[in-house]
Specification:
about 260 residues, mainly beta, 12-stranded mixed beta sheet
């Protein structure tokens, strides 16, 4: 099931996205979309509504250097354990919203990623039970002020600006993330092209590692890392991250 949050003619709503290709319909959900949803009977062509970020995560846990070629392209060693950091939920924006470049940075990079959404949550979740704690998957762009990341030595400021965590276009609850293509395009030019099978630490391992440190809550998001090919964004550009089977997350870029 594809669950989206939309702006429809009467306000905001959750909806199930039905159909294939360009023939998609938003079917309004009446109650909690992440439990046992029921429907109002109202529906709209997807082109007649606006997709928003699927939800606001309580927290966003990110994993750095989880593709070997990405670590190498930035001159970094591959870490033995997952390299964990946080992004604030105030960084979240939805599809087609503007990534706003801060004036204090001279280089802001795109980082296309597969995102995992926690369902049940918990603490000390073993890898063998990790998949039972997953609600679904979506797409993320871990936007990063690269020069500030290098200058600060830690990543909070570089990763934490408002608009630096696009999420969407929806949550897919039935998805096998083990080996799918992930691509990032800037103005239609492919910049990143990899597969999730190349993750150094797979999703069950990440859930076990993170939950040994902090309790994972329902709707927490885990960003699983970006493949090689990261690069700078400029005002006026458009950046799209595609994960096969999940769709495409597109955002425009402006100056803040």
């Amino acid at each position: 099931m594809r669950i989206a949050r939309i702006a429809q003619p009467d306000g905001l709503a959750f909806a199930s996205i039905e159909g294939d290709g360009d023939d998609l319909t938003a079917v309004e959900i009446a109650d909690d979309p992440f439990a046992n949803p029921t429907f109002t009977g109202r529906r709209w062509p997807l082109a007649d509504v606006r997709l928003l970020a699927p939800f606001l995560p309580p927290k966003i846990v990110c994993i750095g250097r989880n593709y070997a070629e990405h670590a190498a392209e930035l001159g970094n060693e591959v870490p033995d354990n997952p390299l964990m950091f946080l992004k604030p939920n105030t960084a979240v924006i939805g599809p087609n919203a503007d990534i706003k470049l801060p004036s204090v940075s001279e280089r802001v990079d795109f980082e296309g990623e597969l995102a995992v959404i926690i369902g049940v949550g918990g603490r000390d979740i073993p890898a063998s039970r990790a998949r039972q704690s997953i609600l679904g998957y979506t797409i993320a762009n871990d936007v990063t002020a690269r020069d500030l990341q290098e200058a600060d030595g830690q990543w909070t400021r570089a990763k934490g600006f408002d608009t630096f965590c696009p999420l969407g276009p929806w949550v897919e609850t039935e998805f096998d993330p083990s080996d799918v293509a992930i691509r990032t395009e800037v103005d239609g030019v492919v910049k990143q092209d990899s597969r999730t099978s190349l993750l150094l630490h797979d999703i069950p391992e990440l859930i076990e590692y993170i939950s040994a440190v902090m309790t994972l809550r329902p709707l927490d998001v885990i960003l699983t890392g970006t493949p090689a090919g990261v690069g700078p964004l400029r005002a006026g550009q458009s950046v799209s991250v595609t994960v096969d089977g999940l769709g495409t997350l597109t955002n425009t870029v402006t100056n803040r």
